[in-house]
Amino acid sequence: MAPAQRCPLCRQTFFCGRGHVYSRKHQRQLKAALERLLPQVEAARKATRAAQVERYVPEHERRCWCPCCGCEVRKHLSHGDLTVLHGGLLEHLASPEHKKATNRFWWENKAEFQMKEKFLISPQDYARFKKSMVKGLDTYEEKEDEVIKEMAAQIREVEQSRQELVRSVLEPQAVPDPEEGSSALGSWKGTNSLVASTSQQPSYLDLPPAPALDWMETGQPLTFIGHQDTPGIGNIHSGATPPWMVQDEEHSSVNQQIGPSYEEFIKEKEKQKLKKLPPDRVGANFDHSSSTSVGWLPSFGRVWNNGRRWQSRHQFKTEAAARNKQSHKEKKPIVS
């Protein structure tokens, strides 16, 4: 029996030796592990042509699992406030340690040979990535300089507007010209005299005052038409019962009952109970409406389905006589 071995992909112990790597379960786990890493490797391979540089955020600390090396690898490469996307993964894939671990992983797990090149980065591609990273850093610095210049221009504009506002507040007000003031005073006096003269003249728009109307004049009293009470009926002001509380004579004389009576309800309830019972039960077809005398009930019990009880009594007597006769014949001794 082969010694026990531990498979890191299947996460179980097996005793079949090297035959485990050819099993269907192991190959399925191997394929799933490589497919999880393959999209990230393809995205990193695209970044070798044009590196992307961004400002650092905490999300750039993500890591990915490399099944070939059996360790976690930083996905991005960060330094200070800058981050190069996919830089950490490309650096790991281009390292000689990863290449050795990949060869050993492919040999031990019997993976497809054509897929091994997809998980390796050649030194030429990594050198191209370094050049594009330098260009990306220069482009990022230029963009940052432009942003800083725009912010500085905005700050200067705000500062200039603030200084102009302060200067306009602190400047002394201009002294008015005496000649201009005298002319303005004369014009003001002329205007006042014109307004006063026009106010003394009668206005054609004045309307005569409206006469005050007094509705309670003593010369026009209201006419009293008398009390409007219906004799014998009264109203709510005289203490009579309101009309909406008086019962109608038709409804008070005839007590109409709404719905079935209690006896009818009990009968209907019994019928509903009988409907739930099986129709072929004993006594289901018995006629309860038939009239019988007081002495119809015998001193014994017997089950019947239809007919009168006295019929079963005669049948019982006939059967009892037959049984007695049979027992008497059995007890009679045999004479030889």
Automatic annotation (TrEMBL):
Signal peptide: none annotated. InterPro entries: CCDC84-like. Residues 325-336 have a biased composition (Basic residues). Transmembrane segments: none annotated. Residues 170-189, 315-336 are annotated as: Disordered. Keywords: Coiled coil. Residues 137-168 form a coiled coil. This is Centrosomal AT-AC splicing factor. The gene is CENATAC.
